[in-house]
Amino acid sequence: MEFTKIDGLKISAEVKAEVKEEVGRLAEIGVVPCLAVVLVGDDPASKIYVANKQKACEAVGIKSLSYILPEDTEQDELDELIESLNESGEVNGILVQLPLPKHLDEDRVIKLISPKKDVDCFHPYNVGRLWTGDPFFLPCTPAGVIELIKRSGFEIEGKDCVVIGRSNIVGKPVSALLQAENGTVTMCHSKTKNLGEICKRADIIVVATGHPNTLTADMVKNGAVVIDVGINRKPDGKLCGDADYENISKKGVAMTPVPGGVGPMTIAMLMKNCVKAVSGE
Ligand code: NDP
Question: Which CATH code is given to the segment(s) 31-115?
Answer without folding.
Answer: 3.40.50.10860
